[in-house]
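INFO  loader      accepted 1 record
INFO  loader      residues=230
INFO  predictor   begin
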Amino acid sequence: MLALRSSLTRAVAARTPAPQVCSSFATGPRQYDGTFYEFRTSYLKPSKMKEFLENVKKNIHLRTAHSELVGYWNNFAHRTEVRKALAKDKEWQEQFLIPNLALIDKQESEITYLVPWCKLEKPPKEGVYELATFQMKPGGPALWGDPFKRAVHTHINQGYTKLVGVFHAEYGILNRVHVLWWNESADSRAAGRHRSHEDPRVVAAVRESVNFLESQQNMLLIPASFSPLK
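INFO  predictor   done
INFO  writer      dumping tokens
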């Protein structure tokens, strides 16, 4: 969650894969998993943050009864089925949806897929998460996929941070990639970042990748008490 002009919570939901759905990252083997991940960002009224989280924590089971929550985390056909089921679920509407809508200023959803060269990892224990969002130049992964992959792997291979997943936008703003990192604490994240900036292997890989970068945004995320990923 992030407090700015308004409060922000970020939810990622894993959608159950449908048969024969695939997504290519263009520069590597095709992604046959078919699972897509929905990044949902809710902008809350600052004074309503506590009330919103309390209500979600109390009633989140009404939502997860219809699709898995990976991290506050189902496939396009299944998402349609889920929406239809939720439209008929009066208990979810009355106890979860309607009370929370009054607390939200704005909400955004973005459909993404895991890139073929990574899988969703679960951190070994509780910690803090960093979501780095990269807006790459037009041209797609065929243009910037390999340098981006090398930059990510260089950070992982040197042990500066732990990777949870790399997500490529399928619908929404194209050429956008989200990288979700995990660290034991904000201090360990800062220490790892400082060491990586002095590592010539990381510097070289990042310099190659930024040739294809338009903008970047980072957010430090603290897991909600009901988040499966702690």
